[in-house]
User: Which sequence fits this backbone?
């Protein structure tokens, strides 16, 4: 099993919205992928509620059976639509993939 974790720090304002508004939109968009991408096993998206430091505003946790499934997810058109929006609102991104 592959676990894919991504953390984002958002721009204070982008796409005509605040960081909080864009975080909510990201959560909705990403969680909607569960029913659209067959290889996506589990997806969970959280928004920071404690203003942690150093901060990340949004975190994605997802699981895939294989590396090939993760690769298929990455290039899937529905995922790419999310990526197009996220790139416009994100200031920083961190990612880790690991296998168990």
Assistant:
């Amino acid at each position: 099993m592959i676990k894919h974790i991504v953390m984002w720090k958002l721009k204070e304002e982008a796409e005509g919205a605040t960081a909080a508004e864009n975080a909510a939109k990201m959560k909705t968009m990403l969680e909607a992928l569960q029913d659209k991408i067959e290889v996506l096993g589990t997806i969970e998206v959280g928004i920071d509620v404690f203003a942690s430091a150093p901060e990340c505003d949004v975190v994605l946790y997802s699981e895939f059976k294989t590396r090939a499934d993760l690769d298929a997810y990455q290039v899937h058109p529905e995922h790419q639509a999310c990526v197009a929006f996220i790139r416009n609102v994100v200031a920083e991104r961190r990612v880790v993939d690991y296998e168990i």
In short: The longest helix spans residues 19-31.
